[in-house]
Design goal:
single chain; alpha/beta; Mannitol-specific EII, Chain A; six-stranded mixed β-sheet; about 25% strand; globular
Length: about 150
Amino acid sequence: MILTEILQPTCVKAPLEATDKDGVITELIDLLDASGALQDKNAVLEAVLTREATRSTGIGSGIAIPHGKCAGVRELVMAMGIAGTPIEYDSIDNKPVKIICLLVSPNTQTGPHIQALARISRLMLDEEFKAKLEKAANSETVYELISTKEHE
Protein backbone atom coordinates (compact mmCIF):
# COMPACT_ATOMS: atom_id res chain seq x y z
CA MET A 1 0.00 0.00 0.00
CA ILE A 2 1.19 3.50 -0.88
CA LEU A 3 -0.06 6.08 1.61
CA THR A 4 -0.26 8.90 -0.92
CA GLU A 5 -3.04 6.89 -2.61
CA ILE A 6 -5.22 7.55 0.47
CA LEU A 7 -3.63 10.76 1.80
CA GLN A 8 -4.50 13.91 -0.12
CA PRO A 9 -2.35 17.07 0.25
CA THR A 10 -5.42 18.93 1.58
CA CYS A 11 -5.65 16.43 4.45
CA VAL A 12 -2.25 17.28 5.92
CA LYS A 13 -1.75 20.01 8.50
CA ALA A 14 1.47 21.31 10.00
CA PRO A 15 1.44 22.68 12.53
CA LEU A 16 -1.81 21.55 14.09
CA GLU A 17 -3.71 24.16 16.07
CA ALA A 18 -5.22 21.83 18.68
CA THR A 19 -3.28 21.13 21.86
CA ASP A 20 -5.07 18.05 23.21
CA LYS A 21 -5.96 14.55 22.00
CA ASP A 22 -9.66 15.11 21.24
CA GLY A 23 -8.90 18.46 19.63
CA VAL A 24 -6.30 16.96 17.31
CA ILE A 25 -8.63 14.13 16.29
CA THR A 26 -11.42 16.63 15.59
CA GLU A 27 -9.07 18.90 13.63
CA LEU A 28 -7.95 16.02 11.39
CA ILE A 29 -11.54 14.87 10.85
CA ASP A 30 -12.44 18.46 9.91
CA LEU A 31 -9.72 18.32 7.22
CA LEU A 32 -11.21 15.12 5.81
CA ASP A 33 -14.69 16.63 5.88
CA ALA A 34 -13.57 19.84 4.15
CA SER A 35 -11.96 17.75 1.40
CA GLY A 36 -15.23 15.93 0.73
CA ALA A 37 -13.92 12.56 1.92
CA LEU A 38 -16.65 11.97 4.53
CA GLN A 39 -20.30 11.08 4.19
CA ASP A 40 -21.07 11.61 7.88
CA LYS A 41 -18.60 13.65 9.91
CA ASN A 42 -20.34 12.97 13.23
CA ALA A 43 -20.34 9.20 12.67
CA VAL A 44 -16.61 9.32 11.86
CA LEU A 45 -15.82 11.41 14.94
CA GLU A 46 -17.84 9.06 17.14
CA ALA A 47 -16.14 5.96 15.68
CA VAL A 48 -12.63 7.33 16.19
CA LEU A 49 -13.30 8.64 19.71
CA THR A 50 -15.01 5.37 20.70
CA ARG A 51 -11.97 3.42 19.46
CA GLU A 52 -9.68 5.80 21.33
CA ALA A 53 -11.65 5.31 24.56
CA THR A 54 -11.12 1.55 24.27
CA ARG A 55 -7.33 1.88 24.15
CA SER A 56 -5.06 4.76 23.27
CA THR A 57 -3.69 4.76 19.75
CA GLY A 58 -0.53 6.51 20.94
CA ILE A 59 1.90 3.82 19.80
CA GLY A 60 4.99 5.37 21.39
CA SER A 61 8.01 7.26 20.08
CA GLY A 62 5.94 10.42 19.57
CA ILE A 63 3.44 8.81 17.18
CA ALA A 64 -0.34 8.34 17.36
CA ILE A 65 -2.51 6.56 14.81
CA PRO A 66 -6.12 7.28 15.78
CA HIS A 67 -8.44 5.21 13.63
CA GLY A 68 -11.97 3.91 13.28
CA LYS A 69 -14.33 2.03 11.05
CA CYS A 70 -17.84 3.20 10.28
CA ALA A 71 -20.44 3.86 7.60
CA GLY A 72 -19.46 7.55 7.54
CA VAL A 73 -16.94 6.95 4.72
CA ARG A 74 -17.12 5.27 1.32
CA GLU A 75 -13.47 4.25 1.22
CA LEU A 76 -10.32 4.25 3.34
CA VAL A 77 -9.20 7.83 4.01
CA MET A 78 -6.29 9.37 5.87
CA ALA A 79 -5.38 12.70 7.44
CA MET A 80 -2.08 13.63 9.03
CA GLY A 81 -0.91 16.36 11.33
CA ILE A 82 2.29 17.48 13.02
CA ALA A 83 1.86 19.09 16.41
CA GLY A 84 3.76 22.32 16.95
CA THR A 85 4.07 21.42 20.62
CA PRO A 86 4.03 17.77 21.78
CA ILE A 87 0.55 16.63 22.87
CA GLU A 88 -0.26 14.45 25.87
CA TYR A 89 -1.89 11.37 24.35
CA ASP A 90 -1.88 8.56 26.93
CA SER A 91 0.67 6.78 24.75
CA ILE A 92 1.95 3.33 25.64
CA ASP A 93 5.34 4.83 26.52
CA ASN A 94 3.72 7.68 28.50
CA LYS A 95 5.38 10.25 26.22
CA PRO A 96 3.62 13.01 24.26
CA VAL A 97 3.12 12.79 20.49
CA LYS A 98 4.04 15.07 17.59
CA ILE A 99 3.02 12.94 14.58
CA ILE A 100 -0.66 12.03 14.27
CA CYS A 101 -1.93 9.86 11.40
CA LEU A 102 -5.70 9.39 11.34
CA LEU A 103 -7.31 6.56 9.37
CA VAL A 104 -11.00 5.90 8.78
CA SER A 105 -12.47 3.11 6.71
CA PRO A 106 -15.85 1.55 6.03
CA ASN A 107 -16.77 -1.42 8.21
CA THR A 108 -16.28 -3.68 5.20
CA GLN A 109 -12.63 -2.76 4.48
CA THR A 110 -10.63 -4.52 7.17
CA GLY A 111 -7.77 -5.58 4.88
CA PRO A 112 -6.84 -2.14 3.51
CA HIS A 113 -7.31 -0.62 6.98
CA ILE A 114 -4.79 -3.05 8.50
CA GLN A 115 -2.39 -2.60 5.56
CA ALA A 116 -2.43 1.19 6.05
CA LEU A 117 -1.80 0.85 9.81
CA ALA A 118 1.13 -1.46 9.08
CA ARG A 119 2.55 0.85 6.39
CA ILE A 120 2.46 3.87 8.71
CA SER A 121 4.15 1.86 11.46
CA ARG A 122 6.90 0.69 9.09
CA LEU A 123 7.58 4.20 7.80
CA MET A 124 7.83 5.57 11.33
CA LEU A 125 10.54 3.04 12.21
CA ASP A 126 12.90 5.18 10.12
CA GLU A 127 14.19 7.60 12.77
CA GLU A 128 15.69 10.01 10.23
CA PHE A 129 12.42 10.22 8.32
CA LYS A 130 10.43 10.64 11.53
CA ALA A 131 12.73 13.48 12.66
CA LYS A 132 12.23 15.28 9.33
CA LEU A 133 8.45 15.00 9.71
CA GLU A 134 8.57 16.38 13.26
CA LYS A 135 10.58 19.39 12.06
CA ALA A 136 8.47 20.08 8.96
CA ALA A 137 7.48 23.74 8.88
CA ASN A 138 4.34 23.32 6.79
CA SER A 139 1.83 20.89 5.32
CA GLU A 140 3.42 20.88 1.88
CA THR A 141 6.75 19.74 3.30
CA VAL A 142 5.06 16.91 5.22
CA TYR A 143 3.27 15.64 2.11
CA GLU A 144 6.45 15.96 0.03
CA LEU A 145 8.46 13.99 2.61
CA ILE A 146 5.89 11.18 2.62
CA SER A 147 5.60 11.12 -1.17
CA THR A 148 9.39 10.98 -1.58
CA LYS A 149 9.76 8.26 1.05
CA GLU A 150 6.99 6.18 -0.55
CA HIS A 151 8.73 6.21 -3.91
CA GLU A 152 12.25 5.34 -2.73
